[in-house]
Structures are given as structure tokens and as C-alpha cells.
Amino acid sequence: MISPKVITHWWQGILAPSIAGVLVVALFVGGVSSYFIRQSLSDREQKQAIRRLTEALETVQSTASIAAFTHDAQLASEVVEGLMRTSDILMVKIETDGKILAQDMRSLKAPSANARLTSDMGIAVHQSSLSKPLVSPFNKTETIGHIILQPDWLMIESRVRQNVQQTLWLLLAEMVAVLLSVAAVMLFFVLRPIKEISDRLHHAAPETGAQIDIPEGHEKTEIGRLVGDVNSITNRLVMLLAHEREIQKQREIAQKKYQNLFDHATSGIFVADKTGRLDSFNPAFSELVWHAYVSQDKDPNLFDAAWQAPEKIKSLFVLALRQETAGRVSTDDFLLRGRRGDERWLSISLASLGDGSLQGTVTDVTARKQEEIQARRLAGMDALTGLANRQGLMEVLSRRTVGDVKKRPFAVLMINLDGFGQINESMGLPVGDDVLKVVADRIRAFIQGDDYSARIGGDEFVLVLEDKFACDAFDHQLRDFFVVLQQPYRMAVPDAVRVISIQASAGVAFYAADSSQGVDAHELLRHAELALMTARSAGGHTYRFFEPQLLVAAEHRRRIEDDLKQALEDGSLYLGFQPIVDLTSGTVVGAESLIRWVHPTRGMVSPDIFIPLAEEVGLISEIGLLVLEKACQVVSQWRAKAQPLYVSINVSALQIPNALPPATIISALARHGLPPDALAIEITEGVLMGNVSVAQTWMTQLGEAGLRVYLDDFGTGYSSLSYLKRFPLNAVKIDKSFIHDLAEDSNDKALVNAIVTMAKSLSLDVIAEGVESAEHLSILREMGCRFGQGFLFSPAVQAHLFEETVKDIEQRLAAMPVPW
Amino acid sequence: MCFRLCLTLCFDAMVNKLLRQFIFVTMMLFSAGHAWADLVIVTSEATGISTLSKEDVINIYLGRYRRLPNALPALPIDMAESSEIKKKFYWRLVGKTLAEINSYWSRLIFSGQTQPPAVLNSSEDAIMRIHRVPGTIGYIERGNHSKLDKRLVVVFELGE
User: Fold this and answer.
1) For chain B, first and last CA: distance in Å?
2) Do B111 and A74 touch (CB under 8 A)?
3) Which letter does DSSP use for residue A22 in this model?
4) Superfamily for A558-815?
5) What is the phi/psi pair of residue A27, to 5°?
6) What is the pLDDT of residues A279-325, one digit of tens each?
7) A15-178 has which fold?
8) Residues of A numbered 57-116 whose beta carbons fall under 8 angstroms of chain B's beta carbons: which are they?
9) What is the pTM for the complete model shown?
């Protein structure tokens, strides 16, 4: 137990240095103090000697004075002898009147006593003798001689030396005593207890918590406290050791648990460095990544497995290492391709361990991945036609327009079926759906290779033509496709086969890989849509190509929209009134109200432009209400002047039924105190072609309330005679295109004649629009057309000019050379 | 020894002081009662001197010199111890009491060669000695002297 190093030589212990230290200090102090003692002693002794001798001199002074006064040598000798008895005195001499009265001198031991004395003493010695003047006993002012005394400095010095020696011996003795006692104290009170403690410590076993006894007599000393502290540290150490052992044990258990988890986990677990070299992995891992790839050599690497895209795993590694400090887990899915063409999706989660290596878990997510792919496919697909839906289309378009990869040019074709709504309405949704399926089939037959097709709305299709576009005769192919698309559709309806003819419009936009950079999917679709709108506004069943001007026009329209909204608010929309004349009597019976818009910068804007716009952007409802209100105001003014005129207002299909409900019209009339015949409603054939029952109900309600309903623009559309029968109409207005060439075109004439005749037979009034000449007037009168309007009478005028206009018309007509 | 010597000296000084005061008082009383006569130092014509200084008188009477200024041996004569004139003489000469004078002499007599002046019992004896031995000097009261002897030479007057 005792190591040899522990035993030290006595000169290495505490005792020797302390004693040496005390010795050095003592020697130094002794040396210095002996010097000073010697100095002060000799000084004191010298002074004492001088004082003593002076006293002695003073004692004998009076006697010496008497001896000197009387020149009594004997007496003087007595005095001298008396003084010489003092051993410190070397010589005494009494002088009077310049003569020596008495003198005595001690014989010197060495001839150069005084010289030696000086060197021995080391201090300045009074070589001079003591001298006292002798005065006359009877006259103190008279000096009669001197008594001179030479001290024996040698004697004094020897006494000083003796004293010094004694003192130094005493000092030395003291020092020795102190040294001995220091040594003894050190030995007994410090070294021995320490030795004892040391011995006990050597033999103690601290891990057992053994306590060391306090050396006897040291219960309350520092030694005792030291032992106490050592004991308490031992106790703490024992506790700490126990704690450590406990932790160690738990750690082992935990280790064992984790080892089991590692070995038996169904997820693959691995630790790899940044190059993918695998440090460790569990059986599940090697199974998941197809063992053979990983462990075929001694240095298995994760990247060596049959990944479809190993570089993606590498980038995940880089990402995970970068997120080292964030402590986050990076996860991604990777495809593994087997030898026999089988696939497996593995999700790898990586977490950096902080030392450049990564810990990862691998799970098989093939099932989930397949579901996802399926779901994505479904999400991007139109269930009815099997084509892509809008979402799928946008993905494809985005992919083909965005990114750095060199793109091929392609065309986007947006197709809209004209009047598809009527098919749904008239034949039912199943037939409509069947038609759509057939359309999809025809589209599928057309496209090829990487071309792509989607249905993005009820009857809206989009084709992305890439391979097709690359063909030489793209234009021809497109035209042929359009012909095919519009061929009659044979649909099986219950009990029969119906042949349905469907027209289609289309807009085509191009994506040129080099020049169209920055055009994204949405813009491309917008281009196609604009082209489609152009095709539709050109009457449909055709296609148009996108041109940059379309964008300008669209922008133009958008501005007009904004301005229109503004106009509704600031009242720059107003009504013009075109008189309607009774052709038989030549009197004005009413007026058609026509909305007018004077744009602040563009001037007059045609309703043909802004009304469709208003319909598109939903402003038509507000415009309709404005028109109703203004018309009522004007009629009530006329009626107030006892002019039984009426005003007709135009109502578009979009206003029926909710934007302008019959109740609103009726309540407006009531508010202005007008009878129902003060207002007529003009509708177009488009209203009748929409939702038939809704239109019918709307019109019936108005008719029942006493309002008249006119069918506007008759002859331009389908002009189905059945409409005239089915709907509660009061009059038809013959379109001005028929009237225009009435005089020249016999066909028109016949047509108009037929309409008039037919209307009469159906007891409908007829109003001819666009009556521009007296010739028109006379022909219409011959035909028996009752009413007319047109520039012959007057254009639309503002309300405040109307009264005057009426007078003017009636005067002019009256002046005409015709029989009224 | 030193201590004792010191004590003795102190004691001497005390006694001296007291005594001096006492004498002073008695003298004052005395002089108030009697007419005061001057002391004079006289010698015979044969001595050959006509005057002495006070220092001469002191030196001669207190044993310093044994010769007169004219080299004749000086023979001073003292009065009896108890005599009033002796007391007066020393007091006036050196301002010391007889005790002090005695102490002075005792030191000389005890170990030295010097002897005090010869003592005579009366002024008459003194005058006789003065006449008989030239060089002899003595002190007497003036009154007596002028009445008794014209041959005496006054060499020094010791006034108050």
C-alpha cells in the first residue's frame, strides 16, 4: 500500500526547511541586533564612564581648588591618588599657575593602547581627557588652575566587550532554545499527526467508505478538521461511485434495449458518413435495399444500391449535413429498381450526428407512393371523359413552359362547343355527357405522341399540341380536325337515335420555345381564350389564332369596363328615345329607350360594345335597373302632360329572371303611378333559347301584370315560329337588316310581308325597325305593317327634346302626300 | 562614597546658608545697640610696607602666599576662635563664617603642608607680636588702635 515514493528523506520534510528558515531568520536578526547591541552598549558605556568620571571630578573639585589655592602639593596628591583608585582612570593631573601641582599615571599594558583602542572599538574614541577648571575658594571668578583626567578607554572598552559578549551569548542561547522548541512543536503538533493520518490513509480503503480516526488530542485543531474533511469527501466519493455504478448499469440496460430495437426493427437503420459509406446497419436495412447491392464488398456504400436517382440521395445527404446545427431530420422518398424490373419506394430520413456522419432510417413506402401516384392521376383527370382536368392541364403546361431544359414549341388549342347548353336542356344531361365523351374520343383520335388534352369546363376543351405542331401541315390538320369535330353526333336516346349537330369555336395560341420566354401557363391559356373569344364573336363554328393585338383589345375592353363602372356611378350613362310611329295614323305612340354612353375621352360608345361587356362583368343588372328607373321617370313626365305614350326597354337574357325580376318592374311602375301599358319589354330570341321554362314564367308574370312584351330583332336568329306560339308575346320587331333593302330586294320584301301576315294571323303587333325612307314607309303601309321606327322619323333623342321631336314628326307626316 | 560626599556638600551648603542668615540678624541687632568700629589690618613699621590689597590680605591669611609683596615672609596673626572680631574679619574679608573657614583649614591641616595663621588670645598680644617680629600682620579694631599705638601701620582697612 505504501509506495516507495511516499517515504521521504528528513530533509525533504516540513521540519528541515522550517528549522532552516527559522535559523536563517534568527542568524540575520541575531547579526543585526548584535551589531546594534554592540553599538548602543559601547556608546552607553562610554557616556556612563564620562559621566561617572565627571562626577568624580566634581566631587574632588573643591578640595583640589583648595590645594591649588594654597599650592599644597600634598593635598593635591591626595586628591589625585583618591581619583586613581577608580580603575577607569588612566591619569590625573592638577595644574595651577601653569605648573603641575600633582600628577599620577597608571602604567599601560601596551604602548599603543590608545591606537588599538580606536581600531577595536570601531567608533570615534574621545582621545581628549576630561578637564575641570579650579577656582579660588574665595573668589569664584578667579581661575587658579585645572584638574585634568585621562580616562582609561582600554579598560572601558574591555568592559563593553565583556558586556556585549554576555549579551550575545544570551541571544545565542535564546535562539537555540527557540529553534529547539520550534522543531519540537513542529514534530509533535504537526508532523506526527500528519504522519499518523498519512499512515491511516495509506491503509484505508476509501471505496468502502472507511473513516479515518482523528489523531489523539487533535479533535478540535486544524488537523482534526482536515481529517473530518477527508472523511466527508470519502463519503461523497462513495456515494458518487454508487451513483455512477447505477448509471452505468442503466446505460447497459438501455444499450441492450436499443440493440434489440436496432436488430429487430422493421425499419432499416443505418449510420453512414458523408460519402455514403455504411458504418453500421441492421438486418432490416440490408433487406430493404436488396442486400446484395449493399454488402457485396467489404466497404458497403449506400449509393451503390440500385437507386433510380442516386444523385438525389446525395443531395439529401448534403442537405442533412447542412442542417446539422438545426437538429432537423431531412426526409425524402427514393425509387429503387430491382434486377427483375420490380420497383420499391423507400423513404429515407437523415439526421446528422454532428461528427460528419449521418444516421438514417429507411421505410418501405411503395404502397403509399403508389396510392399517391394514383391519387395524383385521379386529381388531374376528368372522370367523365378520361381526359385531364384543369389541374392536370395546368401541371402539364407549367412543366412545359417553366424550367431551364430546352423546350419544344407547341400550340394550345382551346375549344368551346357552341350551344351545348341547349343540348343539355332539350335532351337531358345524360345525352350531353355522351356528346362530351364522343368529343373526347374525337380529340383522342386527333392527338398523337406527347400531345395532351383536357376538359377544363362544361364544354371547354384544351389541347396541347406538341408533336402535332411539329408536323409540316399543321394548318391543314387543324382544319381537318375542326371539320371532324363538327360532324353530326349520333346519339342513342331512349327508343331512338338522334343526330345532333354541334358547332365548335376554337382559339389557338403558340408557345415558341425561344421567343416566348416568360410566358407562363396562365398567360398561354389566356391567349388561347382571347383567340377563342374572337372566334366566337365572329359568329362561332370557326377558329382563330392568337395575335398580340388581341391582348391590346382585351386591355382596351378592360379599361372600358372600369370606365363603365365609373359611368354608372357618375351618371354619364343616359337614355335616348327613338319614337315609334303608328304608320296608319301618322302619330307617335311611344318610344324605344336606347342606352347611350358618352365616354369622357372616347366620346360616344356603342351599346353593342359596352352591353356585352356589362353582361360579362355583371354590370348588366345595375344598368338594367338604371334603365328601368329612367324610363319610368320619362314616361311619367309624358303622362303628366296627358300624352298617352309608352316606353319600351331592352332586357338581355342575362337579366332574366333574377337581375330584373317582374316584381321589380311592377313596383317601379307603381312607384311612379304608371299603368302597366306605359312600359313595354323588348327581349331577343336569345332569351327564348336559354332556359325556356324560366323565360316563360318571367314573361307570363309580366303579361299578367298588363305589360307588353316585344320580340326584338326578329328574323336574324332562329326565328322559330314556334316561339311566337309558345311565349306570351305582344309584338315582333322586324330587324332593320330586312327593312334596309326592302325596296330593292324582293326576297326581303317577301319575308317581311310573310312576317307581317303571320303576325297578324297570330294577332301580334308588328314594328318595323330601321325605317329610313318614304319608300320604306309606303311599302310597309301597303303590307299593313302597323308600327315603325327609324331615321325617317327620328333617331333616338334625349328626353327633353322628345316632345318637340314628336310635333315635328307628326307635322312632317301630315304634310306627306299619302292618304292617312 | 560619591553619594555621601554629595550629601555632605548639600548639608554644608544648607548649614552655611542658615548660619549666614543668623549672623546677619545678630549683627543687625548688635550694630543697632553699639557704635560700629572699622577693622584694620596693621603691621609694624619695620615690616616696610605701607599698604596691602584685599587679595594680598586674603592670600596671606588663607595660606596661599607666605611672603609679603616686599618678599619678607608674612606672618599673619589670627584671633581666638570665640572672639567676635575674628568672626567679623573673615566675614568681611571673604564673606565666610568661621565654620567655613575652619572647614577649609581642616582639609589643609589634615593632609597638607600649609598651616593656618598663628592664634593669639587678644589684640594686645597681637600688637605685641607685630611689634616684636617684622613681617607680622594682624587685624584689630580701629578704635583700639588709634588709642593705643601710633607705631602700627594700617596697611588695609576692612570696611563694611
Assistant:
1) 41
2) yes
3) H
4) EAL domain (3.20.20.450)
5) -65, -40
6) 888 888 888 887 665 555 667 888 878 888 888 888 888 888 887 66
7) Beta-Lactamase (3.30.450)
8) 59, 62-63, 66-67, 69-75, 78
9) 0.38
